[in-house]
Amino acid sequence: xxxxxxxxxVLAVATLGALFWAAPASWAAAPPEAASCIxxxxxxxxxxxxxxxxxxxxxxxxxxxxxxxxFADGTRNNAIMSGMAKPLSAAQVTALATYxxxxxxxxKPAPMPTGAxxxxxERLALRGDWEKGIPACIRCHGPGAIGVGENxxxxxxxxxxxxxxxxxxxxxxxxxGDPLGLMHTVALRMTDAQxxxxxxxxxxxxxxxSKSASAKH
Length: 217
Description:
The N and C termini lie far apart (about 75 Å). It contains twelve helices and no strands. Helix 7 packs across helix 11 (about 190-205). It has helices spanning about 5-20, 25-30, 40, 60-75, 80-85, 90-100, 115-125, 135-140, 160-170, 180-190, 190-205, 210-215. By secondary structure, the protein is mostly helical.
């Protein structure tokens, strides 16, 4: 005898199945270790600007894996992240890096600073200060500062607090691992005012630069 299945149950199963197949691969493939990251970096991987926690979503896989290793071995000095990274196996590091690299970045930029600070931030990001040996951010991080390769991650989508903190970390040596010590050298040449200005300007840039802006610069 065929068992009668209520139409409500059929529709419910069909709906759940549709949601499952429509869900992004990154959601379905989230590794268990990612649960520890969400509190600071958010379920979308875009971080917490108010607390200075960075965007992870869409950053290069190798870059993310390298940063976890740097936290674990002390190349980057951060008590919270070192404690999180040290217990991870190589396979777990790879799983986390792969997962976050596949998340699509989203969200709105911070408000654009005004006045002299905005002009200085734009100058440093787009043209640099060659008299002081400071190259433009976009020379390494690409047009729109959206990132180039595995060693030069996107700067857009990061909060001003985080960018400023990282430049200071490169400067005082609490962060290293940069190719040829490039960021350490650049940071040493930047004043605190320049650091703050460029951080605020970069934080106000869109995740995807407009064609007109790219053509302009």
